[in-house]
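Class prep. Write one:
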Amino acid sequence: MQTVVISVVVLLSTTMIVVALGLLAASSGPFDQAYARQSGAHLVASYDRSKVSDGDLTAKASGAEAFAGPFAMTTLDLGSSPKGDSNSLVTVGRADPNGPVDRLNVWKGRWPDKAGEIVLNRNPTDTGGRGEATLGSTVPAPGGARLTVVGFAYSVSQSADAWVTPQQMASFKPTSTQMLYRFVQAATNAQVSAGQHAVTAGLPAGALVGTQSYLGLRALATGEPNTFVPFLMVFGWLGLAVAVLIVANVVSGAVVAGFKHIGVLKALGFTPTQVMAVYLAMISIPAIAGCAIGTVLGNVLAESLLTKAFENYGANGVTVPIWVDAATLLGVPTLVALSALLPSLRARSLSASEAISAGSAPRAGRGLRAQRWLSGTRLPRSVSLGLGLPFARPARTALTLAAVVLGVTSVTLAVGLGKSLTTYQTAASRAGAVDLSMFAPAALGGPPPPGASAPPVAKLTDAADEALLRSIPGAVSVTPSTELGMRLAGTQTDLRVSFYRGDVEQVGFRLLDGHWFDGAGQVVVSERFLRQRALAVGDTLTLQFEGKNVPVRIVGKALYNSGDEVLSNWDTLKLIAPTLRANLYEINVKPGTNLDAFVTAVQAKDSGLVEAGGQESGTFVTIVVATVVLLTIMLGTVAALGVFNTVVLNTRERRRDLGMLKSIGMTPAQVTAMVVVSMTALGAVGSLLGIPLGIVAHRLVVPAMANGAQVELPAFMLHVYPFGLLALLVLAGVAIAAAGAYFPARTAARTTIAQVLHNE
């Protein structure tokens, strides 16, 4: 039993540690390796060709360690993409895929060498799908021409969607120029900004249209694994700590229970060192086996997470660094052996006569004062005896208590983590913030296919639909909005820009920094958007739509998850597409309003307005919470195994006492109650100690997870432990202790007096 306990706890702890260390060590490794291998650009810059010449850009580029370009650049309008999520290709004229910066990996087909040919940027791990462009297919070009796809290349810098020959690009009459830079120092945003200043100082105002820092790409690549690292590290170290405590408890109990065995070994000629080696080997063998299996499982889990996380950056088959496996295989068994050293030294120091003559029961007088005081209380005798049992073996009790404390710490952390993430995701996704959403489909153009009914189309104008919705009884607020797919100038990034007319706070958005837009040319973005592009509130950027450049300023930061969504207002939309109407109306109504009746009343006057689905909270938090719950169950089980082991040792040592108690009339139920009470008392104390530790861990882990996920968590979302919840968490330690104590207690209660006397 003890061998199985040690193997299981070491296996689980090792698995969690390997996954956590593997993610931590390799979280940015695949991206950095790919970037170094292809000499990725630290900065991709786009310039206005009408304001700066190629010669000026080349002269200024001497401030960089290396550069590539200038390359003429334009955006090809495709009408609709194979996937339907982009309607343009950022295309660069480039003579060859090599060069000092951003060497392209042409992994399929060839590089274009004449007019009418194009190479598309596609990740080698992307197998393509139905509707995807293939070799030999064509894409539209300006003037009604078609370009034949002759190859697929991959740019780790994400510098373009496609490439053509410089001669072909010249025929497109490009308006932009691309430059690719590598700097001597580019580890921080400040260093990249300093490099940018060096290569753009003195250029005409407005010449620089847009930039893309590689740090933004890196943040995007490492965001997912870095989200898991903090809580995996905490649970891994908690699991290892519990494993160490249980091992020390097991060995200590084995020494006490094996006094006679130790004496016999020494009487037969075993040296003290050989006796100590017996106990260390007894622990090390299952610990090494559990560690080896746990390392293999940890590698499988970590590699799966890493490969999935980095597949979009050309990192196929990411592995855990070898030093993680080596450190784990050496460190965990060594730590386990050290935890067994102290009780093994006790076995070493016992003389043969002392060991043989020692009884298995606790020494007289140990804990008697506490037991006598408890016997004078009005508690039932089984309860008072049970409360006194832990004082008989104070060292063992302390180890068991520590295991329970760590178990309660894990439960407290898991509950707080789940509540914080759920609260954040609900707020960020605006789930439940809007009572009703009505969609206004626009006419698609052309008659419907034969046999198909015409899709619904809004019958009234934008202003008339808004007035209609406000006039329906029960309406409190109506917030119209529409979306446009736009490009971030100078990058390959597609953005979804949502334009609102009215107060966006009415539909659930929360402002974290700055202010809401109050004029044209202003946008509000998320923390993730800022981090992935190394931007800050107050910075400016340029959005592109149908060949039009629209400079905007970031005036605020709001609470939502997306890194490719931008919020703006109707005044800004008028600069881009003044004739566009709202296609979504988000409505809040008075409490008690019948939503079905509301929709019916709306459609009676405009049958083209249809009810849209509400905001959903997404699945990421569900996955994280499920992982945390699983780890908590694992650690709770391990802690319960520690209690189980303690109760087994206690009942074996006290079998004579139990036999005497049963001989004077104690029933099996009273024996069970006595043993369970002895541990549940430890569970209650463990809860009082573990809950504060869990709260502290929560305050450290949740901000670290938010930082890894590139989001900002408001401070109020850390206050997730109301008094009622704390009272329930006290029961966590009691439940862990009771679960571990019940079965050995029942076994002890069923032991007959005859069995005890026979064993004696």
